[in-house]
Amino acid sequence: MTFHIITIFPHIFDSYLKEGILKRAQEKGLIEIKIHNLRDFTDDKRKTVDDRPFGGGPGMVLKIEPIYKAVKHINLTKQLSKKRSRTILLSAKGKKFNQKITYKLSKFSKLVLVCGRYEGVDERVAKYIADEEISIGDYILSGGELAAMVIIETVTRLIPGALGNIESIEERRVNQFPISNFHFPTHSYPVYTRPEVFEPKPGIKWRVPKILLSGNHKKIEEWRKKIGERG
């Protein structure tokens, strides 16, 4: 299995991925981990990956263009059928990660993990690029890098040969009981940033919701509250 990590902080992974089970699994050729710096997929000299959110609000939002280019680059490197590849956006408002999801992900040959940062990621990434959104828990992190490491380790443990003949007490305990797919809603609303219209190819346009461009902050707040209440 190959794990691709898209991040603006590639060196965060330097130590963790080179120790323990993950180190041995890579040495055995069971897994391959490739880290992609999102800034390498920008067009401007300053390597800008974020911008202010449409409709106002705190923080900055990761832009869609570099993420689209990074995922496209990864998918062109080695073509796999959709059934063997999965693109995951690590997001606070995603489905809560559990062992049941781990088993599902272990069936793929390639996982692309997009690490969110700042106030969030342009919602068009979740809508058009990612196959699903995943959160590792009901708490706030600064970014998706820790979540990526959690997913890589838990999935790697299920690959035959990664653990050798050792099966931990925790492993047996988890496998003994049915796993709930229940997760708490995060009440988070989608965010968007420039460009207003993103055109991945001629004739296809991914637009920002008009309400966020209206300048009517009362209606924007009502929209965000309504969307957030849906989970």
What does it look like?
This protein is of the alpha/beta class. The protein has helices spanning 20-27, 64-77, 99-105, 123-129, 145-156, 169-176, 217-229, and strands at 2-7, 32-37, 50-51, 61-62, 85-96, 110-115, 120-121, 132-135, 197-201, 204-207. It has a single domain, classed as SPOUT methyltransferase, trefoil knot domain (Alpha/beta knot, 3-Layer(aba) Sandwich), CATH 3.40.1280.
Q: Architecture in CATH?
A: 3-Layer(aba) Sandwich
The number of helical runs is: 7
Q: What share of the residues does DSSP label as strand, in percent?
A: 15-25%
N-to-C SSE string, H for helix and E for strand: EHEEEHEHEEHEHHEEH
Number of domains: 1
Overall mean pLDDT stands at 88
**Main beta sheet, described?**
5 strands, parallel
The side-by-side strand order for the widest beta sheet comes to: 2-1-6-5-8
- Helical proportion? 25-40%
CATH evolutionary superfamily:
SPOUT methyltransferase, trefoil knot domain
- Distance from N terminus to C terminus (CA atoms, Å) equals 32 Å
CA-based shape: globular
Low-confidence spans: 176-187
Layout: helices, strands, pairs:
Layout: E1 2-7, H1 20-27, E2 32-37, E3 50-51, E4 61-62, H2 64-77, E5 85-96, H3 99-105, E6 110-115, E7 120-121, H4 123-129, E8 132-135, H5 145-156, H6 169-176, E9 197-201, E10 204-207, H7 217-229
Parallel strand pairs: 1-2, 1-6, 4-7, 5-6, 5-8
Antiparallel strand pairs: 3-4, 9-10
Helix pairs in contact: 2-4
Question: Which descriptors would you attach to this protein?
Answer:
231 residues; alpha/beta; Alpha/beta knot; 3-stranded mixed sheet; 7 helices; 30% helix
